[in-house]
Amino acid sequence: MSLLEVRNLTTAFQTARGEITAMEDVSFDLNPGEILGIVGESGSGKSVTALTIMGLLPRPPARIASGSIRFGGQELTTLSEGRMQKLRGPGIAMVFQEPMTSLNPVFTIGDQIVETIRAHENLSNRALTARAIEMLEKVGIPSAATRMSDFPHQLSGGQRQRVMLAIALVCRPKLLIADEPTTALDVTIQAQILDLMMDLRDEFGMAIMIITHNMGVIAETADRVMVMYAGRVVEEAPVMRLFDHPMHPYTRGLLECVPAIGQDKERLVAIPGTLPEPANRPRGCRFAPRCAHAIADCSAGLPPLETLAPQHTAACFRAIELQSA
Amino acid sequence: MTTLIVRRLLSALPIMLIVSLITFAMIHLIPGDPAVAIAGLSATREQVENIRRDLGLDQPLMSQLWHWYANLLQGDLGRSLLLGQPVVKATMDRLPVTLALSAYALILTLAIGLTSGIVAALRQNTWIDQAAMVFAMIGISLPNFYLGLLMIILFAVELRWLPTGGYIPLMQDPIGWLATSTMPAFSLALLLAGLLARITRSTMLEVLRQDYIRTARAKGLPNRQVVMKHALANAMIPIVTVVGIIVSLLISGSVVTETLFSIPGIGQLLTQAVLNRDYPMVQGGLLITTGLLVLVNIGVDVCYALLDPRVRYDG
User: How many domains does the structure of chain B reveal?
Assistant: First the structure.
């Protein structure tokens, strides 16, 4: 049975100019221990998907317009805030993009880890401290016991992200959502943090949902990839399959954007145009205005997400046709 | 922490030096002959000469300055012309009155201002928020002497719940102190509570938008802990600045309130000293009050360091 089942999930935001949908009709499954990568440009609805699952969007203005989220068999869309609080930490945990601002500057990192355990488990102070130190060691903070009394500003960006991971994982979550966990870090640190996440996955056996716009990160970590564009899922496939046989022109564009070493090209490849504003998205296929293969029919209606090969779905009218061309 | 306090105290020394110099110069800034000005128009030649001699104004300026600082270091600020008492004693007799009233008003300000500010921020754009901010605006807009007069008319004259004025020392009769201090404290506190409520609301709204608040929620902390621990601890840093200003305003702003409610504090003492050209008293009172305000500011700096580890480690 899947750990997480998201079905036809639509999240809308109330704005001054009416309601807009930040993500719509998103469906996917996540199995225990599996790593799902969610890729897309900024504004494609990746983070909203994550925050909706976490129940962290302020309501209002946000609202789950339709769909369901089942986590371990439990429906989350109708769960009370109190029950959701109990789930955050031991059930689902999250690390964010900005390690520099995601830790509270006025409390020690030890305190911030300890209070996470205390919110969910009844342990003595001594046991709490021991657990926190153990977790700091696991995420690779040297001399963890003395660093417990450090404040966030005394740590580097990479160390802070390690502490964020320690906070997220200290209650042994079944699912970790990592929203651009390495985007704000130096390249060498990025690799370390990704390796660490993979190691911890192996050790704790949790599932990971990793959100990124970086295809390199996906290639290194994910088992399966879901590509989002303008609030909708446009393609989903196992990682090797997606890299070898992308079926949606947008996915192909994203893969072509990755510069390869030794590639003899004068210019970097870019997808022309920009992501449409949620308020004035085009009719029909939302990628059509930027798509090199668009034909008149593409603007007629939304292309459905269809299974075009085993475990491989894409939402493009011309996917099969282009694949064989 | 200790080094911080020592350093702040040391940095207060030049401030006190400048203030004491200005205070010394004050008497010489009176247009014309200070002795004549102090003695008044109806004074005889002999009286003027007496004052000149008493105040040492017949000495050369440098010698006057020397005596000013020599006496200052021994805690002698001269003798009040009006009361005949040493200035330091007169001030120290009245200081506890003002401090007790200020402390009472500060507690009211914090209780009203912080609570309504936090509640307004948590219930942003609801009627509770709007009601709190209208209340704050009224508090800020009403001059405190007017508010004081309204309270005297309502609670003292019409309802006869509280005396119109006067003062009973706290140590002598706590209930009597409350009866005489409540109206003055409220008339001082409402304006400042309005100010504090507005600052608290905007600071809390700012802090609640921060990433670390999202982290705190993502950890599964209960809302109460997110707000009262994570948000408030950060919001307190700018709020303390305002509280420091509020304490200064309470101490220096007691002049009007003490006069209105006939409370024998520093404010009333200085008002009388000014009206009666009691220059030594004015000089001494000013110096002591300034010293107090400098101490308040050091207190604010220490609070910063307590609240914000980044300040603490930078020294």
Answer: 1
